[in-house]
Amino acid sequence: CPGIVVLEGRHEIYRCFTSALWEILRRYAPALECLLDEAFCDFTGTGTAYPDFLELGRRLRREIRDEVGLAVTVGIGRNRMLSKLAAKSVKPDGLRLLAPEEEEPFLLSLPVGKIPGVGPKTRELFADMNVRTVREFREIPLRTLEAMLGKVGAALYERARGRDTRAVHEREIPRSISRETTFHEATADRGEIDGMFTYLLDRAMRAARQLGLKVRTVKAKIRYSDWRDEEAARSFPATAVDEEVLPVVRALYRGLYARRVTLRHVGLVLSNFTPDDGQLALFDDGRLQRLHGAVDAVRDKFGDGAIVAGRAIDLLSRLPKDAYGYVLRTPSLTK
Question: Which positions are annotated as active-site residues?
Answer without folding.
Answer: 38
